[in-house]
Design goal:
It contains eight helices and eight strands; from the N terminus they run βαβαβαβαββαβαβαα. It has 226 residues and is an alpha/beta fold. The structure holds D-xylitol-5-phosphate and zinc ion (ZN).
Length: 226
């Protein structure tokens, strides 16, 4: 079984203290950082662009997991990779030629991920599961942090895990949205390896302790994974 990773989502962080917060997490053994990119079209919110990724790249060695919630991922994915993204995920719903986009991300030198919204069935990914290096299951509707976890996402993770096993594939399974200490175990037991968490880490009095606790809860769940 591959290692469980907790990916803090900077969307919920204090942007005026980003470098400092990231360094603390890195010291605590955090290895991957989730960066949400929103364009105000694909989702009704705006966040960060390539300059922020470029600045952060100079401040940390953490792996950057860039989640593109934008209408034109083909234009912007290479720009984010150039800025320092190690892996880039694109929404199935935003890609007219998903196979081509995933190949393009890989050829630009990053890991290629594909994301599905809560209303998008796992079956829509059947033809690209051998191309994608990770699959992100949204457990909230994308656009905002701090929303409530949608329990059906756990079934979608289980469906993906089944396909992965049956077909002998390697992609990692990631979950994003509404993750807390209460639901992370269900996600892990269903097959999640990468857990994104925003509010439950940064909107606490001690983000570092919250990160450690979430990692602990997630690791404990692997002991009873079926
Ligand atoms: C939502 C973003 C998430 C968000 C998660 O569209 O993709 O990454 O930051 O935040 P929480 O953990 O607060 O739901
Ligand atoms: Zn995200």
């Amino acid at each position: 079984m591959s290692q469980i990773e907790i990916l803090p989502s900077i969307l919920a962080a204090d942007f005026s203290r980003l470098g400092e917060q990231i360094r603390l997490l890195e010291d605590a053994g955090c290895r991957m950082l989730h960066i949400d990119v929103m364009d105000g079209h694909f989702v009704p919110n705006l966040t960060v662009g390539p300059p922020l990724v470029e600045s952060l790249r100079k401040a940390t060695k953490l792996r950057f997991d860039v989640h593109l919630m934008i209408e034109d991922p083909d234009t912007y994915a290479p720009i984010f990779i150039q800025a320092g993204a190690d892996q880039v995920s694109v929404h199935q719903e935003a890609c007219r030629h998903l196979d081509r986009t995933l190949h393009m991300i890989r050829s630009e030198g990053a890991k290629a991920g594909v994301v599905i919204n809560p209303a998008t069935p796992v079956s829509t990914l059947d033809e690209v599961l051998d191309i994608a290096e990770y699959v992100l299951v949204m457990s909230v509707n994308p656009g905002f942090g701090g929303q409530e976890f949608i329990p059906n996402s756990v079934h979608k993770v289980a469906q993906l895990a089944r396909r992965k096993k049956e077909r002998g594939l390697q992609f990692a399974i990631e979950i994003d949205g509404g993750i807390t200490n209460e639901n992370v175990g269900d996600a892990i037991r269903a097959g999640v390896e990468w857990v994104v968490a925003g509010s439950s880490i940064f909107h606490t009095v001690n983000p570092l302790a919250a990160f450690r606790q979430l990692r602990e809860t997630a690791r404990e769940a692997t002991l009873v994974r079926v």
